[in-house]
Amino acid sequence: MEQGNYSVGLDIGTTKIVAIIGRENDYGKIEILGTGRSKSLGVHRGVVNNITQTISSIQQAVEQAELNSGLKIGSVVVGIAGQHIRSLQHSDYITRPNSEEVIDDDDLEKLCNQVYKLVMLPGEEIIHVLPQEYKVDGQSEIKEPKGMYGGRLEANFHVVVGQVSSIKNIGRCIKSAGLDLGNITLEPLASAEAVLSQEEKEAGVALIDIGGGTTDLAIFKDGIIRHTSVIPFGGNVITEDIKEGCSIIEKQAELLKMKFGSAWPGENKDNEIVSIPGLRGREPKEITLKNLSKIIHARVVEIVEQVYVEIKNYGHEEQKKKLIAGIVLTGGGSQLKHLKQLVEYITGMDTRIGYPNEHLAGDSDEEIASPLYATAVGLLMNALETNNRQQIVEEEAVLEEEKVLVGQEHSGSTSHKERKSIFDKWSEKLKDFLDNAE
């Protein structure tokens, strides 16, 4: 079945693995062609800890998506999270040999590549180098230096660092599941792509993605990513608390949380009771909803407070760094009743729940527009974007070759064929790295 150019996002989460196949329609919106979802076994707090189980979970999700769409999945864009992710600020500069020429992509690339050479702690590797703002010859606050004259080009970078072994393990799982690794993206960045509007990123916004194993945070201001962090708690610890606190099995605890759970204990009357069937031959258990929401409340407050510490670390309390658009909650954990009110109460910031429907075509499945799928949709967007970029580079390369064949004067000093985006180079480095590792 011919579907034109389609791409695939694969979200390897702690509770579920989602594969989404999609393509861009004529209006620049994303059309979902197929989805697959499986229970994630072998991932703990966002990090793969059982390769065999993870591979079979990935295969399950991928097969379902293939059946669903009638398409074959080749290369995927994967998200990375986990408590080993940290981010740092770094500034760097290059001196240009000829300040009579305008600054072009090659200069920006050279500057970015320099940052990749930063010496990291042993066992760490740079995942993203995100330029924040540039300075040309000391003139600061430049967002787009391309086309300007200048001898010294410097920039502040937001550098995201992760553990080499975790990245290798993800690559290994993808490879063993019979897929190609197209790209690796930080999960909070992917979720932000899917649920935030450009206005919010300009005004200043904190995206909190509450997953099963981790809670991811991404802060934007003036349209630029300013801070990222991954907190190693999520919806699963809430379930764990209910399980311990009510002495019931995990499956029942998860159902209780989803059906009756609330983050605000004042809501429930003392006499509201749920009866849970006992294990084989035992008496049923009776649990008051008030107790249930007290257990949930205690843990959610802890998670939100940790996130709020990160928001303060970024400097939200300074006038210039104020996040005017407040907080956007997304991920499966954001569906907990009264969570929005609790977050507003703790942080004093405006809060909304983020649905990834901003970029989806109008006739998309209701289910995909749920906060559960924010990361997967974001990864798919990243895959489509990478795909488009590669096509442009390839087309330019063909044009260049034709030019040379016709024997015209070859004006450009570098052929576009050699120019790859930094990300492609990084992907290649990673691929070599994974091939050598085996």
UniProtKB/TrEMBL annotation:
<comment type="subunit">
    <text>Self-interacts. Interacts with FtsZ.</text>
</comment>
<keyword id="KW-0132">Cell division</keyword>
<dbReference type="InterPro" id="IPR043129">
    <property type="entry name" value="ATPase_NBD"/>
</dbReference>
<feature type="domain" description="SHS2">
    <location>
        <begin position="7"/>
        <end position="195"/>
    </location>
</feature>
<dbReference type="Pfam" id="PF14450">
    <property type="entry name" value="FtsA"/>
</dbReference>
<dbReference type="Pfam" id="PF02491">
    <property type="entry name" value="SHS2_FTSA"/>
</dbReference>
<dbReference type="InterPro" id="IPR050696">
    <property type="entry name" value="FtsA/MreB"/>
</dbReference>
<keyword id="KW-1003">Cell membrane</keyword>
<dbReference type="InterPro" id="IPR020823">
    <property type="entry name" value="Cell_div_FtsA"/>
</dbReference>
<protein>
    <recommendedName>
        <fullName>Cell division protein FtsA</fullName>
    </recommendedName>
</protein>
<keyword id="KW-0131">Cell cycle</keyword>
<keyword id="KW-0472">Membrane</keyword>
<comment type="similarity">
    <text>Belongs to the FtsA/MreB family.</text>
</comment>
<comment type="function">
    <text>Cell division protein that is involved in the assembly of the Z ring. May serve as a membrane anchor for the Z ring.</text>
</comment>
<dbReference type="GO" id="GO:0051301">
    <property type="term" value="P:cell division"/>
</dbReference>
<dbReference type="InterPro" id="IPR003494">
    <property type="entry name" value="SHS2_FtsA"/>
</dbReference>
